[in-house]
Design a protein that fits this description.
Blueprint: E1 7-9, E2 19-22, E3 42-48, E4 57-61, E5 89-93, E6 116-126, E7 128-134, E8 146-151, E9 154-160, H1 161-164, E10 183-193, E11 196-197, E12 200-207, E13 212-219, H2 224-237
Antiparallel strand pairs: 1-10, 2-13, 3-6, 4-5, 6-12, 7-10, 7-13, 8-9, 8-12, 10-11
The chain binds calcium ion (CA) (4 copies).
């Protein structure tokens, strides 16, 4: 059942207990990403829409030491709220799986132009989820480029990337600018049913084109700030059914 309560993005100050960040920087360029973070209770799966036989998530080095896609190389980036930020390794959907030298690493990492899904599954339920988006272009942030949240395969919520740059959306963030060679930090998202924070154990990115993700932030305990904001919303809005958006602190 889809919750009818309000949806807010959480205020995040500091690193609350039970929160963690995956920046992919400990992995090798071209490395296939799947169970490297199982020790943190996180499992990653990729479904490639452009090349359905290559369902691989791999590491791309944004410093440009390997791989051949300048759209994923920076800083500096051409636009976005993270245009001067260093990302080092990024996670992409592999457009090819060539490993000619048989070292287990994809030789020339490139991101899949045909899009696909990047799925994160959590052993322990999560209440907050944030991330960074690299080279997500306006044409790719249409109605179906999104991030979806599920709990035991039951739909919890969804944020379309176009919502993030839509001033009429509860998820609007005026600092975000999408475009070719852009870099943006997306603030942690939480979902509520009334004042009850909703847990989820699967997050699914659905990309319509090329691009990369990084800085996967997740928290397994509800943010006190988020709860306070909902209570504030109850006071100001006179009810918990209203969507609210507030200025946030960047966790990255
Ligand atoms: Ca990184
Ligand atoms: Ca190789
Ligand atoms: Ca590419
Ligand atoms: Ca591009």
């Amino acid at each position: 059942m889809v919750p009818t309560g309000c949806v807010v993005m959480a205020l995040f100050i500091g690193a609350p207990a039970g929160a963690d960040l995956i920046d992919f920087d400990s992995l090798q360029v071209g490395e296939i990403v799947a169970e490297q973070f199982a020790g943190m209770g996180v499992h990653i799966e990729v479904i490639n829409d452009g090349h359905p036989s290559i369902d691989l998530g791999i590491i791309f080095d944004s410093f440009g030491s390997s791989g051949h896609d300048s759209d994923l190389e920076g800083p500096p980036w051409s636009s976005g709220n993270a245009s001067s930020d260093v990302f080092a390794n990024l996670l992409i959907i592999a457009e090819n799986d060539v490993d000619a030298n048989n070292d287990g690493l994809i030789d020339d990492p490139d991101d899949e132009a045909g899009g696909g899904s990047i799925i994160f599954r959590f052993d322990i339920p999560v209440f907050e989820f944030g991330f960074s988006l690299i080279d997500i272009e306006t044409s790719e942030s249409g109605p179906t480029a999104s991030v979806m949240f599920f709990n035991d395969e039951v739909f919890v919520g969804m944020v379309d990337f176009s919502d993030l740059v839509d001033s009429g959306s509860a998820f609007f963030d005026p600092t975000i600018v999408f475009g070719n060679h852009s870099a943006n930090h997306i603030q942690p998202m939480s979902f509520f049913n009334g004042i009850d924070p909703l847990e989820f154990n699967e997050v699914r990115f659905v990309l319509q084109g090329s691009g990369a993700i990084d800085n996967i932030f997740f928290a397994s305990v509800p943010s006190p700030g988020a709860t306070a904001l909902v209570l504030l919303g109850l006071i100001i809005g006179g009810g918990g059914r209203r969507r609210r958006h507030v200025a946030q602190t960047n966790p990255y």
